[in-house]
Amino acid sequence: MRIVVDAMGSDNAPEVEVEGALQAAQEYDHEVILVGDEVAVKRELDKHGGANDKITVVHAPEKIEMHEPAALSVRRKRKSSIVLGLDLIKHDKADSFISAGNTGAVVCAATLSLRMLPGIERPGIAIAIPTMKGTTVIIDVGANIDPKPIHMFQYAVMADAYCRYILHKPSPKIGLLNVGEEESKGTEFIKEAHTLLSESKLNFIGNIEGRDIYVGNADIVLCDGFVGNVILKVSESVVDTLVKMIKNEIQSSVIATIGAALAGSAFASLKKKMDYAEYGGAPLLGIDGRVIISHGSSTAKAIKNAIRVAAEFKTQNVNRHILEELETV
Asked: For 153, which of 13, 78, 211, 260 is 20 to 30 Å away at the CA?
Protein backbone atom coordinates (compact mmCIF):
# COMPACT_ATOMS: atom_id res chain seq x y z
CA MET A 1 0.00 0.00 0.00
CA ARG A 2 1.40 3.38 -1.02
CA ILE A 3 -0.09 6.34 0.82
CA VAL A 4 0.72 9.95 -0.10
CA VAL A 5 0.72 12.47 2.75
CA ASP A 6 0.72 16.21 2.17
CA ALA A 7 3.59 17.00 4.54
CA MET A 8 2.88 20.75 4.57
CA GLY A 9 -0.84 20.66 5.32
CA SER A 10 -1.47 20.83 9.07
CA ASP A 11 -1.08 23.72 11.49
CA ASN A 12 2.07 22.02 12.82
CA ALA A 13 3.52 20.80 9.51
CA PRO A 14 5.70 18.98 8.78
CA GLU A 15 6.30 17.76 12.35
CA VAL A 16 3.05 15.85 12.86
CA GLU A 17 2.93 14.50 9.30
CA VAL A 18 6.43 13.04 9.62
CA GLU A 19 5.81 11.55 13.05
CA GLY A 20 2.43 10.14 12.00
CA ALA A 21 3.93 8.66 8.82
CA LEU A 22 6.68 6.93 10.79
CA GLN A 23 4.16 5.51 13.26
CA ALA A 24 1.97 4.21 10.42
CA ALA A 25 4.92 2.71 8.54
CA GLN A 26 5.89 0.80 11.66
CA GLU A 27 2.40 -0.21 12.81
CA TYR A 28 0.68 -0.91 9.47
CA ASP A 29 3.72 -1.67 7.30
CA HIS A 30 2.55 0.70 4.53
CA GLU A 31 4.82 2.73 2.28
CA VAL A 32 4.30 6.45 2.94
CA ILE A 33 5.26 9.18 0.47
CA LEU A 34 5.74 12.56 2.13
CA VAL A 35 5.25 15.45 -0.31
CA GLY A 36 6.56 18.84 0.79
CA ASP A 37 9.61 21.01 1.40
CA GLU A 38 12.36 18.39 1.20
CA VAL A 39 14.73 20.19 3.57
CA ALA A 40 12.07 20.71 6.24
CA VAL A 41 10.73 17.15 5.92
CA LYS A 42 14.16 15.52 6.10
CA ARG A 43 15.03 17.70 9.10
CA GLU A 44 12.03 16.25 10.92
CA LEU A 45 12.92 12.73 9.79
CA ASP A 46 16.43 13.15 11.20
CA LYS A 47 14.91 13.91 14.61
CA HIS A 48 13.47 10.38 14.54
CA GLY A 49 16.59 8.67 13.26
CA GLY A 50 16.18 9.44 9.55
CA ALA A 51 14.05 7.92 6.81
CA ASN A 52 13.61 4.17 6.44
CA ASP A 53 12.72 1.94 3.50
CA LYS A 54 9.00 2.64 4.05
CA ILE A 55 9.30 6.43 3.85
CA THR A 56 9.89 8.39 0.63
CA VAL A 57 10.17 12.16 0.27
CA VAL A 58 8.99 14.02 -2.85
CA HIS A 59 10.00 17.67 -3.03
CA ALA A 60 7.26 20.28 -3.41
CA PRO A 61 8.64 23.84 -3.41
CA GLU A 62 5.23 25.48 -2.96
CA LYS A 63 2.56 25.37 -0.27
CA ILE A 64 -1.09 26.41 -0.44
CA GLU A 65 -1.90 28.35 2.72
CA MET A 66 -5.19 28.00 4.60
CA HIS A 67 -6.31 31.54 3.74
CA GLU A 68 -5.69 31.28 -0.01
CA PRO A 69 -8.66 30.98 -2.43
CA ALA A 70 -8.99 27.37 -3.51
CA ALA A 71 -9.39 27.46 -7.29
CA LEU A 72 -6.91 30.28 -7.84
CA SER A 73 -4.20 28.75 -5.66
CA VAL A 74 -4.55 25.34 -7.33
CA ARG A 75 -4.07 26.91 -10.77
CA ARG A 76 -1.17 29.15 -9.74
CA LYS A 77 0.72 26.75 -7.47
CA ARG A 78 1.20 23.74 -9.72
CA LYS A 79 4.21 22.65 -7.64
CA SER A 80 2.42 22.74 -4.29
CA SER A 81 2.32 19.70 -2.02
CA ILE A 82 -1.43 19.27 -2.68
CA VAL A 83 -1.21 19.38 -6.48
CA LEU A 84 1.95 17.25 -6.75
CA GLY A 85 0.61 14.75 -4.22
CA LEU A 86 -2.60 14.25 -6.18
CA ASP A 87 -0.59 13.94 -9.40
CA LEU A 88 1.02 10.83 -7.90
CA ILE A 89 -2.44 9.31 -7.51
CA LYS A 90 -3.48 10.39 -11.00
CA HIS A 91 -0.45 8.67 -12.57
CA ASP A 92 -0.86 5.47 -10.49
CA LYS A 93 2.32 6.05 -8.52
CA ALA A 94 0.40 5.78 -5.23
CA ASP A 95 -2.93 4.50 -3.92
CA SER A 96 -4.38 7.19 -1.63
CA PHE A 97 -3.84 10.83 -0.72
CA ILE A 98 -4.13 12.53 2.70
CA SER A 99 -4.04 16.23 3.53
CA ALA A 100 -4.72 18.32 6.62
CA GLY A 101 -4.33 21.46 4.55
CA ASN A 102 -6.68 23.86 2.77
CA THR A 103 -9.88 21.82 2.36
CA GLY A 104 -11.19 23.86 -0.55
CA ALA A 105 -7.91 23.47 -2.40
CA VAL A 106 -7.90 19.69 -1.83
CA VAL A 107 -11.48 19.36 -3.11
CA CYS A 108 -10.75 21.56 -6.13
CA ALA A 109 -7.45 19.88 -7.02
CA ALA A 110 -8.87 16.37 -6.55
CA THR A 111 -11.88 17.14 -8.75
CA LEU A 112 -9.71 18.60 -11.51
CA SER A 113 -6.96 15.99 -11.35
CA LEU A 114 -8.79 12.74 -10.58
CA ARG A 115 -12.26 13.64 -11.93
CA MET A 116 -15.55 12.27 -10.61
CA LEU A 117 -16.80 8.71 -10.51
CA PRO A 118 -19.19 7.98 -13.40
CA GLY A 119 -22.69 8.95 -12.31
CA ILE A 120 -21.55 11.28 -9.51
CA GLU A 121 -21.75 15.02 -10.14
CA ARG A 122 -20.30 16.53 -6.93
CA PRO A 123 -17.97 15.20 -4.22
CA GLY A 124 -18.97 15.12 -0.57
CA ILE A 125 -16.91 15.04 2.62
CA ALA A 126 -18.16 12.31 4.96
CA ILE A 127 -17.18 12.53 8.60
CA ALA A 128 -17.75 9.84 11.24
CA ILE A 129 -18.91 11.01 14.67
CA PRO A 130 -19.61 9.12 17.92
CA THR A 131 -23.25 8.88 19.05
CA MET A 132 -25.26 7.11 21.74
CA LYS A 133 -25.79 4.20 19.35
CA GLY A 134 -22.34 3.89 17.80
CA THR A 135 -20.97 5.81 14.85
CA THR A 136 -22.90 8.09 12.52
CA VAL A 137 -21.68 9.52 9.20
CA ILE A 138 -22.54 13.10 8.25
CA ILE A 139 -22.28 14.09 4.59
CA ASP A 140 -21.54 16.75 3.35
CA VAL A 141 -19.46 18.81 5.79
CA GLY A 142 -17.88 21.31 3.44
CA ALA A 143 -17.24 20.19 -0.13
CA ASN A 144 -20.42 21.59 -1.71
CA ILE A 145 -22.38 24.39 -0.04
CA ASP A 146 -24.99 24.75 -2.78
CA PRO A 147 -26.00 21.24 -3.89
CA LYS A 148 -28.97 20.13 -5.95
CA PRO A 149 -31.46 17.47 -4.76
CA ILE A 150 -29.82 14.88 -7.02
CA HIS A 151 -26.51 15.53 -5.24
CA MET A 152 -28.14 14.71 -1.90
CA PHE A 153 -29.34 11.43 -3.38
CA GLN A 154 -25.81 10.69 -4.62
CA TYR A 155 -24.41 11.54 -1.17
CA ALA A 156 -26.78 8.95 0.28
CA VAL A 157 -25.60 6.28 -2.14
CA MET A 158 -21.92 7.02 -1.45
CA ALA A 159 -22.33 7.16 2.33
CA ASP A 160 -24.36 3.94 2.23
CA ALA A 161 -21.49 2.11 0.52
CA TYR A 162 -18.98 3.64 2.94
CA CYS A 163 -21.00 2.55 5.98
CA ARG A 164 -21.46 -0.96 4.64
CA TYR A 165 -17.84 -1.68 3.81
CA ILE A 166 -15.86 0.52 6.22
CA LEU A 167 -18.15 0.72 9.27
CA HIS A 168 -19.66 -2.73 8.59
CA LYS A 169 -23.30 -1.70 8.93
CA PRO A 170 -25.30 -4.01 6.63
CA SER A 171 -28.32 -1.70 6.17
CA PRO A 172 -27.50 1.82 7.38
CA LYS A 173 -30.45 4.07 8.22
CA ILE A 174 -30.38 7.30 6.22
CA GLY A 175 -31.92 10.52 7.55
CA LEU A 176 -32.35 13.86 5.79
CA LEU A 177 -31.59 16.78 8.11
CA ASN A 178 -34.54 19.17 8.27
CA VAL A 179 -36.32 21.58 10.61
CA GLY A 180 -38.97 18.95 11.35
CA GLU A 181 -39.82 15.31 10.73
CA GLU A 182 -42.93 15.99 8.62
CA GLU A 183 -42.60 15.63 4.84
CA SER A 184 -44.31 18.99 4.37
CA LYS A 185 -41.55 20.90 6.20
CA GLY A 186 -38.39 22.41 4.80
CA THR A 187 -37.39 24.20 1.61
CA GLU A 188 -38.35 23.06 -1.88
CA PHE A 189 -34.79 21.77 -2.20
CA ILE A 190 -35.24 19.51 0.85
CA LYS A 191 -38.69 18.36 -0.26
CA GLU A 192 -37.39 17.34 -3.68
CA ALA A 193 -34.44 15.51 -2.12
CA HIS A 194 -36.91 13.73 0.19
CA THR A 195 -38.93 12.55 -2.83
CA LEU A 196 -35.85 11.17 -4.59
CA LEU A 197 -34.72 9.30 -1.49
CA SER A 198 -38.21 7.94 -0.75
CA GLU A 199 -38.48 6.46 -4.24
CA SER A 200 -35.09 4.71 -4.01
CA LYS A 201 -34.20 1.30 -2.62
CA LEU A 202 -32.05 2.87 0.10
CA ASN A 203 -32.98 2.45 3.77
CA PHE A 204 -34.32 6.01 4.00
CA ILE A 205 -36.08 6.75 7.31
CA GLY A 206 -37.24 10.26 6.37
CA ASN A 207 -36.51 13.65 7.86
CA ILE A 208 -34.58 13.98 11.11
CA GLU A 209 -33.88 17.00 13.27
CA GLY A 210 -30.60 18.28 14.71
CA ARG A 211 -31.40 16.75 18.11
CA ASP A 212 -31.48 13.28 16.51
CA ILE A 213 -27.86 13.37 15.32
CA TYR A 214 -26.02 12.54 18.55
CA VAL A 215 -28.79 10.27 19.78
CA GLY A 216 -27.84 8.09 16.84
CA ASN A 217 -31.30 7.75 15.29
CA ALA A 218 -29.69 7.65 11.84
CA ASP A 219 -26.50 5.97 10.66
CA ILE A 220 -26.16 8.55 7.89
CA VAL A 221 -27.16 12.21 8.12
CA LEU A 222 -27.60 14.07 4.84
CA CYS A 223 -27.15 17.84 4.61
CA ASP A 224 -25.56 20.46 2.38
CA GLY A 225 -21.92 21.43 2.96
CA PHE A 226 -22.78 24.74 4.59
CA VAL A 227 -25.02 23.20 7.27
CA GLY A 228 -22.70 20.22 7.71
CA ASN A 229 -19.68 22.41 8.31
CA VAL A 230 -21.59 24.47 10.89
CA ILE A 231 -22.60 21.24 12.67
CA LEU A 232 -18.98 20.09 12.68
CA LYS A 233 -17.56 23.35 14.05
CA VAL A 234 -20.29 23.74 16.69
CA SER A 235 -19.77 20.14 17.81
CA GLU A 236 -16.05 20.72 18.22
CA SER A 237 -16.71 23.85 20.26
CA VAL A 238 -19.27 22.14 22.49
CA VAL A 239 -16.91 19.26 23.27
CA ASP A 240 -14.04 21.61 24.12
CA THR A 241 -16.29 23.78 26.27
CA LEU A 242 -17.77 20.82 28.17
CA VAL A 243 -14.31 19.42 28.90
CA LYS A 244 -13.17 22.76 30.31
CA MET A 245 -16.36 23.21 32.35
CA ILE A 246 -16.04 19.71 33.83
CA LYS A 247 -12.40 20.36 34.75
CA ASN A 248 -13.33 23.63 36.44
CA GLU A 249 -16.08 21.95 38.46
CA ILE A 250 -13.79 19.10 39.51
CA GLN A 251 -11.04 21.48 40.63
CA SER A 252 -13.50 23.56 42.67
CA SER A 253 -14.15 20.81 45.21
CA VAL A 254 -12.05 18.22 47.03
CA ILE A 255 -14.93 15.74 46.94
CA ALA A 256 -15.36 16.28 43.20
CA THR A 257 -11.62 15.74 42.70
CA ILE A 258 -11.79 12.42 44.57
CA GLY A 259 -14.87 11.40 42.58
CA ALA A 260 -13.12 12.23 39.33
CA ALA A 261 -10.15 10.10 40.35
CA LEU A 262 -12.45 7.16 41.04
CA ALA A 263 -14.16 7.65 37.67
CA GLY A 264 -10.87 8.00 35.84
CA SER A 265 -11.35 4.97 33.58
CA ALA A 266 -14.80 6.20 32.50
CA PHE A 267 -13.40 9.64 31.66
CA ALA A 268 -10.56 8.03 29.69
CA SER A 269 -12.99 5.88 27.71
CA LEU A 270 -15.22 8.88 26.95
CA LYS A 271 -12.24 10.97 25.89
CA LYS A 272 -11.16 8.28 23.44
CA LYS A 273 -14.64 8.10 21.90
CA MET A 274 -14.79 11.87 21.43
CA ASP A 275 -11.21 12.25 20.15
CA TYR A 276 -11.23 13.12 16.43
CA ALA A 277 -7.68 11.77 16.21
CA GLU A 278 -9.09 8.25 16.62
CA TYR A 279 -11.05 8.67 13.37
CA GLY A 280 -8.06 10.03 11.42
CA GLY A 281 -9.79 11.87 8.64
CA ALA A 282 -12.86 12.25 6.45
CA PRO A 283 -13.06 10.62 3.02
CA LEU A 284 -13.84 12.82 0.03
CA LEU A 285 -16.44 10.57 -1.58
CA GLY A 286 -17.30 10.75 -5.27
CA ILE A 287 -13.76 11.33 -6.53
CA ASP A 288 -12.32 8.72 -8.91
CA GLY A 289 -9.52 8.04 -6.46
CA ARG A 290 -8.99 7.85 -2.72
CA VAL A 291 -8.65 11.16 -0.86
CA ILE A 292 -8.78 11.66 2.91
CA ILE A 293 -9.16 15.13 4.44
CA SER A 294 -7.79 15.56 7.97
CA HIS A 295 -8.29 18.30 10.54
CA GLY A 296 -5.96 21.30 10.33
CA SER A 297 -4.99 20.80 13.97
CA SER A 298 -4.24 17.11 13.46
CA THR A 299 -1.78 15.38 15.75
CA ALA A 300 0.66 12.66 14.72
CA LYS A 301 -1.91 10.15 16.00
CA ALA A 302 -4.56 11.62 13.72
CA ILE A 303 -2.24 11.40 10.70
CA LYS A 304 -1.38 7.80 11.56
CA ASN A 305 -5.08 6.90 11.74
CA ALA A 306 -5.79 8.80 8.53
CA ILE A 307 -3.26 6.53 6.83
CA ARG A 308 -5.11 3.52 8.27
CA VAL A 309 -8.43 4.86 6.91
CA ALA A 310 -6.87 5.55 3.50
CA ALA A 311 -5.59 1.97 3.32
CA GLU A 312 -9.01 0.55 4.32
CA PHE A 313 -10.64 2.69 1.62
CA LYS A 314 -8.55 0.90 -1.02
CA THR A 315 -8.68 -2.56 0.55
CA GLN A 316 -12.48 -2.49 0.76
CA ASN A 317 -12.73 -1.05 -2.77
CA VAL A 318 -15.31 1.51 -1.69
CA ASN A 319 -15.45 3.28 -5.06
CA ARG A 320 -16.37 0.06 -6.86
CA HIS A 321 -19.16 -0.52 -4.36
CA ILE A 322 -20.44 3.03 -4.89
CA LEU A 323 -20.71 2.39 -8.63
CA GLU A 324 -22.50 -0.93 -7.99
CA GLU A 325 -25.00 0.79 -5.66
CA LEU A 326 -25.68 3.53 -8.22
CA GLU A 327 -26.76 0.86 -10.69
CA THR A 328 -28.92 -0.86 -8.07
CA VAL A 329 -30.79 2.01 -6.44
From this structure: 211
